[in-house]
Amino acid sequence: MTAPAVPISQQDAVALGGDDSILMRQRRDHARLDAMMNRYLSEDLPPGDLNSLWLDIVQLVFSHAFAEETVLWPLLRRVASDGEELTRQVEEEHQAINELVARIERSPDDPRRAEWIQQAFALIRQDIRDEEDELLPQLRTAFGDRRLRRIGAAWEAVRAAAPTRPHPGVPRRPPGNALRGVPLSAFDRLRDLAPGSGPTARRASLAAGAAAAGGAVAVAVRAARRHG
Q: What is the model's pLDDT at position 96?
């Protein structure tokens, strides 16, 4: 009988292929998201700071998920016998998060907003658990350290230029997600430049990402396909 995969949360950087591996990059993003969600729910922040923190969470959630769908899940479907089933489940979670956050953004004054945000956080936490316990350990099994670092670089390039807002109508799989998501990425990042959207450094970074969006995504998708 095959031993169950060890969740990446229970392994150190050496076991996961080094600090630049895709597994460590994923774990750092997940930890950052967890900390931001905890802060949102536990601290009594002024409305402006709370809105800024919410925007930070949204930007990270959707850029992170888009890069997963573009780079990681196609690889997993190739190397894991149950990759199709596993990635379909996570794609359904991503779609549910898209739809819920889109509703929150459409209805800023709805009295159910706080309840919806808590629901969104619960979905995000479930998605993180599924990825760290079920999907990502299979990439560790399939690829050596060097390959994991190369996949990590491709994923990072896509994440840096990915859409930063919910788009429930965008397909969850390539090439449709890239074809429809890349133009939306530039639009999202222009929205993120609006006054009050966050610190100057973050807005400058988003502007640079918008300028590079199309080329970075195309190059990284090709790189991920070669690495598979």
A: 98
